[in-house]
Amino acid sequence: EELVARAVAPVKPAFLRPPPVAVPLEKKSKRQFKRERKQEQESVSRLCIAVGKSGNPDACKYGASCRFSHDIDAYLAQKPADLEGSCPFCPYGLNCRFLGTHKSENHEINPLNKDVQKLLWKTKYKFPKASAQIKHLGLNSVPCVEPRDLVETPHLRERKIIDFREKLYLAPLTTVGNLPFRRLCKTLGADITCGEMAMCTNLMQGQASEWALLRRHSSEDLFGVQICGAFPDTVARTVELVDNECSFDFIDINMGCPIDVVVNKGAGSQLLTKPMRIKSIVQASSAVTERPLTVKVRTAFFEGRNRADSLVSDIYDWGASAITIHGRSRQQRYSKLADWDYIYQCAQKAPDDLHVIGNGDIFSYTDWNRHVSGCSKISTCMIARGALIKPWIFTEIKEQKDWDITSGERFNILKDFAHFGLEHWGSDSKGVETTRHFLLEWLSYTCRYIPVGLLDVVPQRLNWRPPSYCGRDDLETLMASDSAADWVRISEMLLGKVPEGFTFAPKHKSNAYDRAENG
């Protein structure tokens, strides 16, 4: 009881051990980074893509002026050993780490069309629906739009209907909620998936890296895309753009992101301070698509000044089919527990046809059961960090059990992610290292999981800090480590040795001790 009161996980005494000693990171100077980058650019390991695909040193149209190496023999001499298994998908030729076992199948949807990208670059893409609706709502002046061009707003009853009730919904997760991770969660029981948050302005500029966030795997049978923008005209045009160019089942507008770079642009949770702008965004955006439009918010921007309850009664009339409420304010970020009592209050004020989805601190099937049954107006719950730490939470909910998963079973899940990653990012050296990077980002969360058999109190709570402990075997102990060096060791068991000079520090400060030393 004392440990739980201090939010420390009550691990059985037999498995406890002294915490490891932190080793300080070695800091590199800007000059050292610049020198290493130049050496990398001049390295024979950077084989020209055209040469690699064809196997012909003369295939590159840039010839001697190409920035990459054309020396095939030198590249093959230093190329790392091929990985075990067969190539999942490959256009990489000699660069492939599964050379000779290529497959041509690709099950991904929503690539960025090059012609569309060029139109976006030249700002010549047309938005007739959005422009007409923006003018109709008086949001700004739009030239060359006649009244006859005004598109009639699809009535909510005419839209495609999605029944969210009691479906297992994997939250859109920045960085770690990538396509391979979502695909993994589908194999473990997730019903609904949603792409990572994409910024409207970047999509409108045709940025390939932002459009990659909209990609969908064929296994994602109920899939949404999430966008984030600050102004009604920008968001409405983005909705029309992705509605024309992408395959998805619903579109979600993020009005809850707490990140400074988003909030400072007036987007994300900053919109909670401007309810009339929320109204304009939802009205304009819902008018340009017949697919369901959903909105994700937090309780408020400032702690103690809840605003979400004032939105739920009107947002359905504005055009939203569902609203997801994260039970924390922007100011609170992820500290303290989610306020589910307030989520229930919001749900009680919602119209009968509006789906209300709760979000926050779901980490076991008992958490899920309690929150879904806590209010009859809650359609379902969105699962975020709980899925990052243990993606088999979807299996636990469907089978109504606390799964004492073995280290071997957990390793097989990591192996599936690595396979899906190589399919998505590629099986050449760059694809392998990109897969490794996202695997390491994910491992910075999974280390917080404590096996069921080691706990005195079950289930584990999301806010418990794991003490330093030993697992029931060496692999389980390794997986419990919050050291980046050990995460790298796990990645090497799946993707081979890391390149010389490799270091890693997680993007998110997700591990319990806020440490990521490399040795």
TrEMBL record:
One Pfam assignment: Dus
Protein's UniProt keywords contain Membrane: no
Keywords in alphabetical order: Flavoprotein, FMN, Metal-binding, mRNA processing, NAD, NADP, Oxidoreductase, Repeat, tRNA processing, Zinc, Zinc-finger
E.C. designation(s): 1.3.1.-
Cofactor list: FMN
Catalytic class of the enzyme: oxidoreductase
InterPro entries found in the cross-reference section: Aldolase_TIM, DUS-like_FMN-bd, tRNA_hU_synthase_CS, Znf_CCCH
An annotated GO BP: mRNA processing
Residue ranges of every copy of the C3H1-type domain listed in the record: 42-73
GO molecular function, a single term: flavin adenine dinucleotide binding
Catalytic activity: 5,6-dihydrouridine(47) in tRNA + NAD(+) = uridine(47) in tRNA + NADH + H(+); a 5,6-dihydrouridine in mRNA + NADP(+) = a uridine in mRNA + NADPH + H(+); a 5,6-dihydrouridine in mRNA + NAD(+) = a uridine in mRNA + NADH + H(+); 5,6-dihydrouridine(47) in tRNA + NADP(+) = uridine(47) in tRNA + NADPH + H(+)
Origin: domain of life: Eukaryota
ZnF bounds (C3H1-type): 42-73
UniProt similarity note: Belongs to the dus family. Dus3 subfamily.
The protein's role, per its UniProt record: Catalyzes the synthesis of dihydrouridine, a modified base found in the D-loop of most tRNAs. Specifically modifies U47 in cytoplasmic tRNAs. Catalyzes the synthesis of dihydrouridine in some mRNAs, thereby affecting their translation.
The name this protein goes by in its record: tRNA-dihydrouridine(47) synthase [NAD(P)(+)]
Species this protein is from: Brachypodium distachyon (Purple false brome)
